[in-house]
Amino acid sequence: MEFELDTGNTAWLITASSLVLLMTPGLAFFYGGMVRGKSVLNMMMMSFASMGVAGLIWVVYGYGLAFGPDIAGFIGNPAGLIGLTIDNAASPTTAMGIPGLVFAGFQATFAIITVALISGAIADRVKFGTWIVFSAIWVTVVYAPLAHWVWGGGMFGADGWLASALSLPIDFAGGTVVHINAGAAALALALVIGKRKGFGTEAMRPHNLPFVMLGAALLWFGWFGFNAGSELAADGTAGRAWVNTLVATSVAMLAWMVTEKFRDGAATSLGAASGVVAGLVAITPAAGTVDSWGAIVIGLVAGVLCSLAVGLKYKFGYDDSLDVVGVHLVGGLVGTILIGFFATNGRYDSFYFEGSLNGLFYGGGVTQLLTQIVAALVAVVYSFVLTYIIGLALKATLGWRVSEEAEVSGIDLAVHGETAYENSGSTITEVR
Questions:
Q1: The pLDDT value given to residue 430
Q2: Are 304 and 338 in contact (CB under 8 A)?
C-alpha cells in the first residue's frame, strides 16, 4: 500500500504520545507521595528509570518484538526494525496516514509506564540496580510478547487461536497489555521479595498527599492521550474514548469515596486519588467500544471493587506497598471482563481488524464475554509466571533487598546519596 500522510491523524498521535509520556512523571508524583518521606526520591527514581530503560529498549529492538512479522503467534520478528528503521508503506498505520516512526513512539510510552506501574508494589525495600536490570528483562520477555499478542497480530489477533475458537478479544488501549500485565507482575514480585520491615505492625502512611493528588491529576490528563490516542485517528471514536475516560473516572472516584465513607467513616484525599486511577484503569480496554451508560457502570464497579480489593494484602499477607494489585490488576480485570456485557459500538477497529463485536447486553450473546475472560486469565498467568521466574533469578544473583539498616533509616540516602527533605543526619553507605 502506498503511504499518504494524514497530517491531522499524525498531529493527534504526536500529541497523544506526549500526553502518555507525561503520565510516567505523574505516576512518580502519585507513588512518591504515597511512600514515607525517607524513600520518596527512590520511588520517583524508579519511574524515571523506567523511562530510560524501556525507552532505549523499545527503539533498539522492543518495537520489533511487539510489531514485527508474526512468529507462531507468540512474538514479532525484530529483523529489519532494529533502531526503528521503519518503512512507512509497510507500517501498521499506513492506512491511517501515520508514519511508522510516530506509531512506534506512541507505543514506546505504553511500554514505559507499564514497567513503572510495577514499582509501586515493591516500594521502600529494593536495590535500585536490581530494578534497572529487572526492567530491561521484563519489557523484553513479558511486555513485548503480550503487546504482540493483542496489537501486533499475534495469538489474540484476528488470525489467532482465540478469535478462531470464540471471538476477537477487545483491548482498546491496554487493559490486558498494560494493567492486568503490570498488576499480575506486581503480585509476583511482592511475593518473591517479601514484606517491608514493620508491614502490618506499624503505620506506613503517605508522607505527602498533595503529591498524590497532583500525580492523579497528571495521570488523568495524560490518560486522554492514552485512551483517545489509541484510536490512531482524530475521529468520532477518539471522541467517544475521551468522553468515556471522563465519565468512568468521575464515577469511580465518587464510588471509592462513598465506599470509604461507609467503611471507614471518612472520604479521604487518598481515596479520591485512588478512585481516579481505578476508573482510568477500568475504562482503558473499553474506552472506544462502550457507550456512556457502559462507562458509568464500569466506573461504578471499579470504584467499589478496587476500594475493597486494596485491603486484601492484609488478609492474605502479601506486601503490595502502593496497591498495584488492588487497583491495576482488579481494575484491569473489571474493565476487560465488563466489555463482554457492554460492548456496543457495533465495531472494533484496529490496524489489523475491523468488525462487529457486541456484548451480552447489546445482542452479542455470551461469546464475547467468554472471550474476554479467557484473554484476561491467559494474561494473568503469563505475566505472573514469567515475572515470578525473573524475580527468583534476580534474587539468587543480584539480590533484591537493601540492608535492614538502609530500609529502616532511609533508602534515599543509602542508595542515592541524597534526601528529599533536609532533616536527616544519616550517613549510611549502601551498595547501589
A1: 47
A2: no
DSSP 8-state secondary structure symbol assigned to residue 422: S
Work out whether strand 75-76 and strand 348-349 pair parallel, antiparallel, or are unpaired. unpaired
Of the candidate ranges 74-78, 210-214, 423-427, the one whose mean pLDDT is the lowest: 423-427
Output the pTM of the full model.
0.95
pLDDT digits (tens, 9 = 90+) for 382-410: 999 999 999 999 999 999 999 999 999 99
Cell matching residue 430: 549502601
Angstrom distance (rounded) from CA 51 to CA 94: 27
Measured CA to CA, the distance from residue 35 to residue 31 in angstroms comes to: 7
**Hey, CA dihedral for 402, 404, 406, 409, is it positive or negative?**
positive
Q: Which amino acid is at 244?
A: N
C-alpha distances out from residue 299 to 8, 177, 231, 327, 428, Å? 31, 20, 21, 12, 45
What is the mean predicted confidence (pLDDT) over 237-250? 97
- Is residue 369 within 8 Å of 167, Cβ to Cβ? no
SS3 75: strand
Residues 166-195, mean pLDDT to the nearest whole number: 96
Which one-letter amino acid corresponds to residue 413?
Answer: L
- Cell 497480530, located at residue: 153
Q: Radius of gyration over alpha carbons of the chain, in Å?
A: 21
Residue type, 274: S
Q: Which letter, b or e, does each residue of 202-221 get, where b requires 16 or more Cβ atoms within 10 Å of its Cβ?
A: eebebbbbebbbbbbebbbe
Give pLDDT tens digits for 330-345.
Answer: 999 999 999 999 999 6
Q: How many Å separate Cα 148 from the centre of its chain?
A: 16
Are 96 and 229 spatial neighbours (Cβ–Cβ below 8 Å)? no
